[in-house]
Amino acid sequence: MEGVRFNFPAPQLDESVDELRKEVRAFLEEEVRSGGFTPVTDCWCAGIDPEFSRKLGEKGWIGVTWPRQYGGRELSALHRYVITEEMLVAGAPVHAHWIADRQSGPLILATGTEDMKQKILPQIAAGKCFVALGLSEPESGSDLASVRTRAIRVEGGWEVTGTKLWSSGAQQCQYMTVLARTGERNPEKRHDGLTQFFIPLDSPGVTVRGIRDMSGVEHFNESHFEKVFVPDDAVLGAVGEGWKQITNELALERSGPERFLSTFVALEKALQQGAPNMSGHQAAVVGSIIARIRALRAMSLGVAALLGQGHSPEVEAALVKDLGTRFEQDIVERLREFWPVRMKQGYGDELQNLMADSLLRSPSFTLRGGTNEILKGIIARGMGLR
Q1: Per DSSP, what are the bridge partners of residue 157?
Q2: What is the pLDDT of residue 110?
């Protein structure tokens, strides 16, 4: 372990980043005041409002790092970071466009055809086109190398058959990026022979079925593909490069502020209500929570800086997600010491509703995007321990 170092460089936030933050924050405060949305916890997974996404598209706040020719603004990863952070802190309903902005758009930019870039990316940036992830499957979750969805060569393209599970927001999406096996399974090289496809969800043979979670929301889905034809230009990158693409995408998926701010809106409301009468013990608990947020934020910003420099910090991203998702669960548990949660629907004030939603959603925090056990394996490899 001697000499092993994690790299979380402190980024320089220039004036334009701060100005953008103020602009976004003012917009969100006005939206809440005018009834544009009601803040929710875990808003990036549970808050689905296509109209709100279109508003953000009109503001130019989706795809901000992309080239202007594809609908972007050519801003930095740190500009995108402050937009993301402000949306999470406000509990804004951003899930409709979240995956497309964070992951699918950059994937298309890096591996898609020119026609795909010109047609799809401006629609994503406008908040009018949404994309789901087709990765996990029944009996194939964090171990993505075991996926059984197959794509078989046919005249003019491919025929895709299989089932994808936990495809969040697919019921609102026009497309899905689907990881499928295009080569023979090799037990010695399990990551070979995998390819990603960009598939329209209105294609013949596609069925999307909602899965209601225990909070009563259907943001998870089971998506089935039965001999779905896709042309050759639906392949993202080269055939067989799917695993390499996935590992690069996961750095984007795992390192953002959504991995430690999912329950922040409940914390903020608790502080607004309880600060005047807070005991010394409560103040100490809240202080420790805030200190951990500052540390995780510094780490997450460091990953954003590395991404902006063109790096793929997989180990650092895994560390942020492991620490962050356990922390946001801990926020709920610590707050329950002072504000007991009553699960009766419609009971109590806004804080009670936020706390109840946080409690119901928190079990999934350490599962989605790769379980914490898998993340620890990635970190251990990065440290040379396995």
Answers
A1: 154, 231
A2: 95
Please state the pTM of the whole predicted model.
Answer: 0.91
d(CA 37, CA 47): 10
| Nearest partner of 104 among 80, 84, 132, judged by Cα | 132
Mean pLDDT of 219-225: 92
Is the separation of the CB atoms in 160 and 176 below 8 Å? no
**Are 173 and 223 within 8 A, CB to CB?**
no
Torsion of CA 74, 76, 77, 78, to 10 degrees: -140
Q: How many CB atoms lie within 10 A of CB 325?
A: 26
Tokens 């914390």 correspond to what residue? 267
Whole-number Å distance between alpha carbons of 20 and 83: 8
List the structure tokens of 254.
Answer: 């795992």
Q: Which amino acid is at 235?
A: V
The answer to whether residues 117 and 161 touch, using CB atoms and an 8 Å cutoff, is no
Tell me how far apart the alpha carbons of residues 324 and 98 are, in angstroms, rounded to a whole number. 19
- The per-residue pLDDT for 1 is 46
The yes-or-no verdict on residue 136 having pLDDT over 70 is yes
User: What percent of the chain has pLDDT above 70?
Assistant: 96
Per-residue DSSP letter, 237: S
pLDDT tens digits for range 8-19:
988 888 899 999
- CA torsion sign for 305, 307, 312, 318 is positive
**Beta 157-165 vs 131-134: how paired, if at all?**
unpaired
Torsion of CA 339, 343, 345, 350, to 10 degrees: 20
Overall size of the chain counted in residues: 386
For 318-357, what is each residue's pLDDT tens digit?
A: 899 999 999 999 998 998 888 877 665 555 688 888 888 8
Q: At what angle do helices 264-274 and 77-90 cross, to 10 degrees?
A: 50
Report the phi/psi class of residue 23: left, alpha or beta, with left for phi > 0 and alpha for psi in -120 to 50: alpha
What tens digit of pLDDT does each residue of 139-161 get? 876 677 889 999 999 999 999 99
DSSP calls for 305-318 = HHHHTT---HHHHH
